[in-house]
Design brief:
Elements: H1 2-23, H2 28-44, H3 48-55, H4 57-60, H5 63-81, H6 85-112
Amino acid sequence: MDYFNAFWVGGLICALVQILMEKTKLMPGRIMVLLVVTGAVISFFGWYEPFQKFAGAGAGVPLLGFGNILMKGVKEAVDEQGFLGLFAGGLKAGAVGTASALIFGYLASLVFKPKMKK
């Protein structure tokens, strides 16, 4: 049942994003920012953890999960460092994911020889 829940929740998120891309004039970058901010807001209210327990990877893998990670990092850093934690927490929590995306993206570009769009 865990796989099924992850599949349909992740699919629903992707379908809603696809609808936003096709039916609105929002650019993909803005939609991505919208997903990260939505994940952070849901995490702020404490609703993300139960959602992720239900949906598993269907909730943790999309950009909503990245917003959750950033918000958790900010909460922990504010508890430890005070006001400065607002700036350091998200960077520290998201560093591994961001660095791995950059490294694997670079490696993929070496293997597949990307070309500029015309």
